[in-house]
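Handoff note, outgoing to incoming analyst
You'll be picking up this chain. Sequence as last confirmed:
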Amino acid sequence: MLTAGCTAEASSESGIAPELLVRAREQGHVRVIVHLRVGAAGSAAIAAAQDAVLAELSATAYRLGRRYTAIPFMSLVASEAALRRLGESTNVLDVQEDRASSPLPSVEPAR
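Most recent structure output, in case you need it:
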């Protein structure tokens, strides 16, 4: 396990952005979207990948947000340990912070 004294370069080796690890350490958790590695198309393959990742996280602190059925993603509230495990997982392609975004501006129809 890396400690707070490790460099950002060492933290990035896990595949998780160093700022996410810092935020999780400081706040106790961070909301993330996990992009899963799925070998085949379909909801069964997505569910299997989700199950595999959740099993890998069993010894860490996390809360499941949402399991998507049509796209290979899921949302979590993850501790620093959970983030590090996600970064090591061969079942995970990417982990990004789950941030609220502004709605798109409405467009008035042309007259």
